[in-house]
Specification:
single chain; 206 residues; mainly alpha; Growth Hormone, Chain: A
Length: 206
């Protein structure tokens, strides 16, 4: 989960939004103002995600919003194939904001919450630290490879790659990630220690 929180492309967009928008034909001033809009969208996503994880659950929040995140990233890739199209600017801006909102709700609001919930008490401290290290380690990886990837496979290819990683994230969540909403930590730890899948064990625990 820590890896996917970055591999799905969130900080590639946040860090390089002005460059991406300039490449799409926007002026530098518009690109910078849009960057401010992205920051505001992240705030909205954080508030909405904080409500959603308790209202509908951690797993369901991811399964509802991550497909929209992947779709928005794919649309962003398609937009960069529309060279010179009058609609390109609006599609890029819309896809960018939808992606930030949905990824912020579906992944960024959950990743910091779920690790302490599913880790056994005996290793919770160091393991949570390892999860945090993974988040920032993969963030560094994305930061140093994003522009190189764009140069290697193009802007559209880069966004299609991130869209594919969103799909892999959805598959991982569907197969592996348990629902921990309203579950005591003791129940989660018993399900983790029992034979078989944590997700299935927790789903069948009354």
């Amino acid at each position: 989960m820590a890896a996917f929180s970055q591999l799905t492309g969130i900080n590639a967009i946040v860090y390089y939004a002005p460059t991406i928008l300039s490449d799409a034909g926007f002026g530098e001033s518009v690109a910078l103002v849009t960057g401010i809009g992205i920051g505001a969208m992240l705030v909205v996503a954080g508030i909405t995600g904080a409500i959603a994880v308790d209202a509908i659950g951690r797993r369901r929040t991811m399964l509802w919003f991550m497909p929209l995140s992947g779709l928005a990233m794919a649309v962003l890739g398609l937009a960069f194939l529309m060279n010179g199209s009058p609609a390109q600017h609006w599609i890029v801006i819309t896809a960018l904001f939808v992606y930030i909102l949905c990824n912020g709700i579906g992944m960024q609001s959950v990743v910091w919450l779920i690790a302490p919930e599913i880790l056994p008490l005996g290793v919770r401290g160091p393991a949570t630290s390892l999860a945090t290290l993974s988040v920032w380690g993969f963030d560094l990886l994305i930061a140093v490879t994003a522009l190189s990837t764009i140069n290697a496979v193009g802007r559209a290819g880069t966004f299609f790659l991130y869209a594919a990683l969103n799909v892999l994230c959805i598959v991982f969540v569907a197969l592996k990630v348990p629902e921990t909403r309203n579950r005591p930590l003791e129940d989660i730890e018993r399900a983790l220690r029992a034979p078989g899948s944590l997700r299935r064990n927790l789903a069948t625990t009354p």
